[in-house]
Design goal:
Blueprint lengths: L1 H20 L4 H11 L12 H16 L3 E2 L6 E7 L9 E11 L6 E7 L24 H19 L8 E7 L7 H8 L8 E7 L11 E4 L7 H5 L8 E4 L8 H5 L5 E5 L18 H18 L13
Parallel strand pairs: 4-5, 4-6, 6-9, 7-8
Antiparallel strand pairs: 1-3, 2-3, 3-5, 7-9
Helix pairs in contact: 2-4, 4-8
Amino acid sequence: MKNINLFLILCLLCLTKYAQAQQIEISNLKKHIYYLADDKMKGRGTGSKEVFKAADYIEKEFKKYKLQPKGENGYRQSFKAKVWKVKVADSIRDADNIIGFIDNGAALTVVIGAHYDHLGTGHQGSSKDSLGVGKIHNGADDNASGTAGLLELARYFSTNKEKEPYNLLFIAFGAEELGLVGSKYFTEHPTLPLEKITAMLNMDMIGRYNPDNGLAVIGYGTSSQWPIIFKDIQAPIKFNLSKDGNGGSDQTSFYKKNIPVLFFHTGGHPDYHMPTDDAEKIDYQALKSILDLEKSVIENVMKQSNKMDFIWTN
């Protein structure tokens, strides 16, 4: 009897662990954001030792989830980025994209992306604080929130017991704040043929949900299949569909390569590009709901029998 009870307890523990793996976990989102947006990370400015520390953190998570390295040097795709908005001595800086792959042996791949860099201590420009130079810009919403979402979706899909009908490519982009440099570099030097990408979904500033405005889902007009994909999707949050594929984040680089895109974004707020964009201001429950929505979108994309068509929206 004792052996039977022990067996049942072990089975219950396994089922509980599996159930936890199969949902978005707020505790994980908090862990990632509080790490990336801590003062010790000094705003993750491009070229800083702290942004490389953030890259190490992302790579470690990808390894934990057993994603295949899909960079040019393991998980890394290295490039140079130029600071062009202000004059600084170190205007050319080293940067990395961190790229992990779930290879399901499929013909087509869905790309999921988010940038992990921010403004550092304001010396690279773009701060909205007139006295912001020298102050740490933690970038909890911009874009530790999207990076946390990227990592949690990578964990979720990597724990599925059955192979998905599509491959999944997860990219943490560097140097977005210097002009989408990382995503431009990837689309010019892809580590997977662009023609094998059916769609790209980007997360940038998804942590400050405002129920009056809702979540913006931009890029709905970039394929005739998006309305089919969204047809039966429901969410506990309000979301608004916008047609344009262009926009101020990394999906634009893929859109310009004739790839259907979506851009998830909760909009501007008084802490945007300010030293006050901190981890405690994130709405973690809404962030979970946004990722549940995106998860449903990805799963519906993978139900499509053919590669998604592309529509130029402007």
